[in-house]
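INPUT
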Amino acid sequence: MNKDRKKAVVIILVCNAILISLLELIVPIPVPVPGVKLGLGNIITIIAIVFLNLKDVLIIVLLRCIVVAVLSKGLMMLLFSISGGILSAVIMWFLYKRFGNVFSIKGISIIGAITHNTAQIIVASVILRETIFFYYMPVLLIAAVLTGLITGSISDLTIREITKRGIFH
Amino acid sequence: MSGFLLNVSTKNSLLAEIDAGLKALLAIVLVVAAMVCEKQVSLLIIFIYMVIATVLLGSNFRFLFKNILSYAIIIMFPYAFGLLLSIFFSIIFSVNQSASDLVFKDALLRMIKIFFVWYVGSLYIFSTPLESILGLLKKVLRPLNRFGVPIAKHLNIIKCIVIELNQSVSEFKNNTLSEARGIFKNRNSSFNTKIKEISNILVCFIANSLHKTEHIQELVARTNPEDLIYNFKFSWNEVIVSFSLIILLAVLTLIETIVFF
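OUTPUT
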């Protein structure tokens, strides 16, 4: 893949991640908890982890966070989404590349969701200088397992189909 | 966010016309003032100033409530949950309550301040056209070019993403989103079947979108990074904004230094 085409693929994947997150209006969360989202945009991160290198994955996550912050949530939200997004992407990439034979895509997605929520709690605690947020951790962990399982299942099926069709080749 | 994507380029208001650089300075001063001020009256005045700015934005109060709601969900709800649990534990284990009351008051003040930072950031982004923000960033981050970071090119990619999103959001809503809605309306199929059908839709969507690489390459080539220009302008609007900022700072300094408040 040449440099210009790769840049175009990155732009398309960032757009896809933002558009796919619109599906969250439709796909129900099994347990509705305040502050918990399905994180369908993560499907694109997992696809990027499987088919692209770490640098491109991080660029996709970073650009997605910046564009979403610019378009809707504001600057402060950027801190939460970047910390959670980057940390979970790095850990998911490491697990997939080093322990891909141990962890399934669903497992990696669950760990990614747990990492994402943990990073956000840490950021909230650092900003407000309060450890009290960690009481909310068990709720977020349970939610992360469920949402990670759903996004992992969709990612798994999508990756199989992409591989079968040879889309990235 | 979908509604916002459709209206992303329609920021026509009094605040949108004000120079992006001056507005950024105003936002930074407001954030610093909110963090430094200790008296409740000062925070109230900053809040009133922000409400006036919201009105001048040409937006209704829905924007303010939307921000309060998202802040409440992300920050205040987990905090309240943790606070209730800690009070519950302290009652069970008979810990002295006065200490936690003190911490709560401090945390509440900090939470209000963080909300101001949150809101000022949202207001700035909401009221400033994307081109102006990118142009300003290109100018401010120019020193990074010396370290080999092609800032203009990165900002150009962000611009391309927003252009592409604007073009494809209605297509996505009409096709993929309505198909997905149809799947989840069907009550006869199981959750697993629905997930499989959703992934089929996503595969088609991703596969089709990747056929657009040539179109995106053309878009990137067409969008010149040199077009991101920021020029400082100073008209009557800027004079009024600068004057209001000076008055605000004077009032806040007065309140913070007078013992009466």
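end of record. Chain B touches chain A through 67 residues (CB under 8 Å).
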